[in-house]
Hints:
The chain is built from five helices and no strands.
Amino acid sequence: xxxxxxxxxxxxxxxxxxxxxxxxxxxxxxxxxxxxxxxxxxxxxxxxxxxxxxxxxxxxxxxxxxxxxxxxxxxxxxxxxxxxxxxxxxxxxxxxxxxxxxxxxxxxxxxxxxxxxxxxxxxxxxxxxxxxxxxxxxxxxxxxxxxxx
Length: 149
């Protein structure tokens, strides 16, 4: 029993490490998104959701690959599901394929939403560039016309 408990604690320790590791790495995507999308709350929220899904997916992967009993895997998987669903309890842990399918689908949706957000930002920058260019050209032509008269 003690060996099994130690193995479960080791899996949880690895999960905690996976959660904290990106925050210690200053080159992490987490920090880049915080600064890049500071003025865009919807994009920032989208990226935060994406990181949450990645973290929970990693937790589940660690549980399934951990050197623990099937009963412990099921119990810990239920806890991850409770976190995801925000539920008080969960009666059954879904199969690995089902769980992975949920995460993969959510990851794909979030990734496509982030791509749309990125495209919108690129379009906005293009519009700002064209506005600044046209304003400059207009002011230049206006100054030239004033100089002629």
